[in-house]
Automatic annotation (TrEMBL):
This is Exonuclease. One of its GO terms (molecular function) is exonuclease activity. InterPro entries: PDDEXK-like_dom_sf (IPR011604), Restrct_endonuc-II-like (IPR011335). It comes from the Bacteria. It comes from Escherichia marmotae.
Amino acid sequence: MAPDIILLRTGIDMRAVKQGDNAWHKLRLSVITASEIHNVIAKPRSGNK
């Protein structure tokens, strides 16, 4: 998502955010990141949907 759109939607300028600070964590809420994608595409343990 473009930085301008993020600024409009969240009020946070992602260009000024440092990794690990509170604003950075707020931006990552509800975002599927590469380190968590396996949880999204993994098969169910029981084999049922």
